[in-house]
Amino acid sequence: MNPYLNIHPEVQEALNRKAPVVALESTIISHGMPYPQNVETAKAVEELVRAYGATPATIAILEGKCQVGLGTEQLEFFGKAKDVGKVSLRDMPFVVSKKLNGATTVAATMRIASMAGIRVFVTGGIGGVHRGAAQSMDISADLTEMENTNVAVVSAGVKSILDIGLTLEYLETKGIPVVTLGQDAFPSFYSRESGYKTPQRLDTPEEMALLLQTKWQLGLNGSVLIANPIPTEREIGREQMELHILEAIEAADKQKISGKDLTPFLLKWIADHTGGESLEANIALIKHNAVLGSKIASALV
Ligand code: PSU
Ligand code: MN
């Protein structure tokens, strides 16, 4: 037994039965959305996962333990707390050894999911290669983690706060398959398109599950980026978002925001300047991803 791991009884019971389990991250709750929509969404996503026959496991660090599966009070805590840090791989030893609380990013959530034996993880958007990375070297640890850890990531593609082209190149270099559901265009979170074609396309959750099983049985370690385009009725046009993104990047530059603060800054700036529309889109696409992830997790078992 891993002394740093604390698995919620409901999740443990599902894992024992070899029933489908879907991991969910907590940075999106603490740093990706405002209260109370963050907690409402986290709860709604868990309910959807259950409705589609899987067990949800929201992951965070709680008093130094890698907690797999949060209760309602804990979800509320991560939604409200102002002083909960964003924990990527680099931050895990510090936060765990000091018995602190932390909201886990895609990278840290994947690692903890893998420790618990969970194979499918649902989020909104992953971190990637930032625009201007040739100068800043700002490349998310989400990508290096995806190279190594056998947990599939269901997302709505890559948000265009990042350099999508370079992120796709990086994923190729690291041998991480990128597969979009049901279309030839690679999606960019708010939009069903990004200007890039998807490297691969599959049309059903069952085919996705078979690809995962095949990859891992081949001994090819690491993740698969499963891109699920946002529902058409919630889509926000690429040109419209691009204006806000350029302004957000300029504001970050001016305020000298960098490192781990950059992604949350850009996300908050965009949310504040696009009003309810982007938040609604964000909520809709995460729910949509939860349904797909649950179907893939079910097919995988
Ligand atoms: N991109 C989004 N929404 C998010 C994040 C990224 O569209 O909430 C969060 C995720 O938790 C992701 C993290 O793992 O930001 C990446 O941060 P960084 O770029 O500092 O690695
Ligand atoms: Mn970074």
Question: What's the arrangement of secondary structure elements?
Answer:
Layout: E1 5-7, H1 9-16, E2 21-24, H2 27-30, H3 37-51, E3 55-62, E4 65-68, H4 72-80, E5 85-87, H5 92-97, E6 102-104, H6 106-116, E7 120-122, H7 133-136, H8 141-148, E8 152-155, H9 164-173, E9 178-181, E10 200-202, H10 205-217, E11 225-227, H11 238-254, H12 262-300
Parallel strand pairs: 1-4, 2-3, 2-7, 5-6, 7-8, 8-11, 9-10, 9-11
Antiparallel strand pairs: 3-4, 3-6
Helix pairs in contact: 3-4, 3-12, 6-8, 10-12, 11-12
Walk me through the structure.
The chain is an alpha/beta fold. It has one domain (5-300): Indigoidine synthase domain (Indigoidine synthase fold), CATH 3.40.1790. It has twelve helices and eleven strands. It has helices spanning 9-16, 27-30, 37-51, 72-80, 92-97, 106-116, 133-136, 141-148, 164-173, 205-217, 238-254, 262-300; strands at 5-7, 21-24, 55-62, 65-68, 85-87, 102-104, 120-122, 152-155, 178-181, 200-202, 225-227. Strands 1, 2, 3, 4, 5, 6, 7, 8, 9, 10 and 11 form an eleven-stranded mixed beta sheet that branches. It starts with a strand and ends with a helix. The structure holds pseudouridine-5'-monophosphate and manganese (II) ion (MN). Pseudouridine-5'-monophosphate binds at residues 25, 27-28, 32, 88, 105-106, 124-125, 127, 140-142, 159, 189, 260, 263, 267.
